[in-house]
Amino acid sequence: MLNRRQFLLTVGAVMGLVVLRDQSPPILAQPQFSAYPFSLGVASGDPRPDSVVLWTRLAPNPLSGQPMPAVAIPVQWQIATDAQMTEVIQQGTTQATPQWGHSVHVVADNLSPSQWYWYQFQVGSETSPIGRTRTLPALDTDPEQLKFAFVSCQHYEKGYFTAYQHLVQEDLDLVFHLGDYIYEGGPHKGRPRQHIGPNPIDLETYRLRYALYKNDPQLQAAHAAFPFICIWDDHEVDEDYAQDQSQNYDDPNVFRKRRWAAYQAYYEHLPLRPTAQPQNGQVQLFRRFQFGQLAEFHCLDNRQYRDDQPCATEGIGGGAIVSACQDRLAADHSMLGKPQEAWLIQGLQNSSAHWQVIAQQQLMAELKFGLETVSGYWTDGWDGYAASRQRILDVVEQRPLKNVVVIGGDIHAFGVADLKTNFQDPQSPIIGTEFVGTSISSTGLPQALYSLSQKINPHIKFLDTRHRGYVLCQITREVWTAHLRIVNSVEQSESTIRTLASFQVKNGQPGAIPIEAMANP
């Protein structure tokens, strides 16, 4: 009961002054917490030349399974030009509402391009850690260089997020996360770490899973150090799902409810713009980012709109390695869905940026598994949607676009490949370059599986599934340099790091050239 407008909130152990309004929910004007409300850290993302998204989520007891009370909580924010937060240039107050899990997505705008900023949140008497972020260059400028890293596939149970310990020490402008930010599935014994709670299927259990991952100190440090641009793959919902089709052939009506919960939890926990807020069961996630005239990134969503994987084995959903399967070549079978595919093609044709970068989730180059006489293709990747890939690569060749680079993840292996319109013909011209990053912690397939296939995939220049880490890229107008960075182990929370291999792509000359690996590029 309300008594003199004082409202005791036992769930979440928060109490304070509740301001009653005609609208719902009521606002908790003077919150007090029994535990630190910024336990999931801070983050920034989706940078533009004049704005960036600032994120946090109030969660004083995120792993308890107890929800925060159904009240809105005012959260103050500041952005400054110095790390001590003394030169504040903007500040404001926003509401953390129960509808969105008490997450906050502040769009700080009217900022200067190519500028480092620092930011912080406050609620009641509690202040968050200080985060650092950076805006993109102005669209009409020609920056000398861009330095970024891309990561993917961080399975909590398979190991520690050790790579982030070293990523925060890199000299970067931003980080791309290319999917599998969390993994579904229940806890498994005998692994370095264990999931908390059951396999997520609803909003409550997905929130719990994200809270576990966001509670990781190394992941928090990476988010606090750089702005992130994030896209998803399958494990944010369910392994190998396609549109409204689950791996286990669940009733689509039931699975759509699960997918909706997963999509909302994804939005609640990442620094996405409000335009990505789930609406009518969908999320607008494919988008572009332009780094002046130096590079434009086309970020794709290859799960929400794709057709179901072809050549399914009866009773088994998702991807499979198949040999004779004409359905994977069908012209109407789409990885991206027709609207997104048209959006990508139009963007490639119209862009004036020096480097065209397709940021997506998987290996785009063809990969035949096995031997010459007995080989197969993995249908959950681009090989299962060959016509979609062909249409995109045909545009690259016909435009022509000389500096196209595809970056991806998913396969838990480093990959470097030449892109062609005809992978079956060794004499087919190289029209683009692909770099695939290994996982942060997820286990890779046996190296022998890829080694057997090396002779029948001459366009794939490098493939290593034995190591965990990230890809560090430095771009100028004349050269793209990529360093494949690996940690010694993910079995412990700390590890050394080194460069496994390095490659360069020269201006106007598609195809990666190996260079001598360096200990500390």
TrEMBL record:
Highest taxon listed in the record's lineage: Bacteria
InterPro entries: Metallo-depent_PP-like, PhoD-like_MPP, PhoD-like_sf, PhoD_N, Phospholipid_Metab_Enz
Residue stretches making up the PhoD-like phosphatase metallophosphatase domain: 148-484
Pfam family name, one: PhoD
Domain Phospholipase D N-terminal: 40-135
PANTHER family: ALKALINE PHOSPHATASE FAMILY PROTEIN (AFU_ORTHOLOGUE AFUA_5G03860), PHOSPHATASE, PUTATIVE (AFU_ORTHOLOGUE AFUA_6G08710)-RELATED
Protein's recorded name: Alkaline phosphatase D
Organism: Acaryochloris marina (strain MBIC 11017)
